[in-house]
Amino acid sequence: MQNSKNIETDVLIIGAGVAGLTTAIKLAQKRPELSITVITKTHTKESNTSWAQGGIASVWDFSTDGYEKHIEDTLIAGDGICDPEVVEIVVKEGHDRVKELISWGARFDKEDDGDYNLGKEGGHSENRILHYKDITGWEIQRTLNEKVKEYKNVTIYEHYFALDIITQHHLGRNITRLTPGIECYGAYVFNKETQDIDTVTARATVMCTGGSGQIYKNTTNPVIATGDGIAMVYRAKGRVANMEFVQFHPTALYQTTGENPDFLISEAVRGFGAVLKTPEGEEFMQKYDERLSLAPRDIVARAIDNEMKISGSDHMSLDCRHLDHEGFLEHFPNIYKKCKSVGIDPFTDLIPVVPACHYVCGGIYVDVWGRSSIGHLYAAGECTCSGLHGANRLASNSLLEGLVYGDRVAQDIDQTIDSITLQGSIPDWDAEGTTEPKEMVLITQSWKELKDLMSYYVGIVRTNVRLNRAANRLFLLYDETERLYGKTKISPQLCELRNLITIAYLVTKGAEMRRESRGLHYNTDYPYQFEYQETTYM
Fold this sequence. Notes:
alpha/beta; Flavocytochrome C3, Chain A, domain 1; 7-stranded mixed sheet; 13 helices
């Protein structure tokens, strides 16, 4: 690694989605003298944020809506495990953050009279979803990408893959989960273009690495969603919580081609009036919830899963045939285009849909300022367990969380960074004794095995027997992968597999520990809810 670099920066932000870039922009505004470094493992147009379709939830029309209604909807969806303080913070501060985003250039759809066209999604009692067609995430990502260019103290490195955060462990100290005062000094990053491993030292580090959906066969998450940030913090002995709560979006487009990721049929389509039906055209949601097709996602996903098992069908259907055609084309042009490309006309055909992994509600445990259990390490966005989502995320609250926590992390760094000194004498990454990998098939096959076992054993409906079998299989995969990691040179594919195995372990272990059914975690051996418990891994 003779070409490896040592990069010194005041603030290192890992991830360039809504949370990462909001943090960078807000901090650059407050402290133009600070050096801010953002790394992303692909490029700034590719993130979990850019794949978000539906919109961003924010109280907007105060004549019919209010903060208390949004708070109540979020708490109900979270099934008793939300942190009420966090919910209030995000809902109330979110309004100003969205207004700020609009001032930066974000475009949301409007009515002819100039008022915003507010959508409605599952679990929401009022129309409060701001959206841009059916590519709201893309529009938010575009806005942030343009805004961050205004700040000369922000440097963005594309195609840099974070391997591990640097702690006292790398200085020769034995660190356990009980060690007090663990601190983060930056990260080791793999330069995908030069194949070198660089050392980035920072006074403060912010983890904004997004989701983990690639642990499942069917997911709406992009291929980059491999849980890197959560896995890095867990390896560094940081606190991670509530990983068993994995949200499956009820309506991904069913295809036999094995497309990865699955194409999402936004919940906003049901908010627009689409109705869930069997392939034969019979409605079924009345059997499960009085809110019918607009019930919260956990209920709808389990209902679809149950109907598929009862009938033996490999999908359910979404009926859009009765909807206003002109309005549908205006609001959902990309969904219409995608359906037509695979031979489905939403105006004459039922759209085949299946549940797909969409969002992980657990993650790096953070406080109201985004501070993790590791000193000088913050986190924001989907990689966190902030207390907002509880046992089930309310639709379109995630982009709001990224904006609010990006702002809050920037505020806290602004107040504390002057008291933090840059750690010196960080050793280079040790690659001694490793060789080039000879068989990539070992990695690709292990990844396939991982997706299969998580989908079959730790999916929408779980049992103790399935969870135990998953845990046993995961240990074998972990052991094989660690031995491979110890003797071969670093590759992003191997590191992502390693991270995904860690995420799968955390999801499975959390599911085993939670001896109840609540929110997104449904175990047929514990069909009833009991007292509150939080699954945290120390």
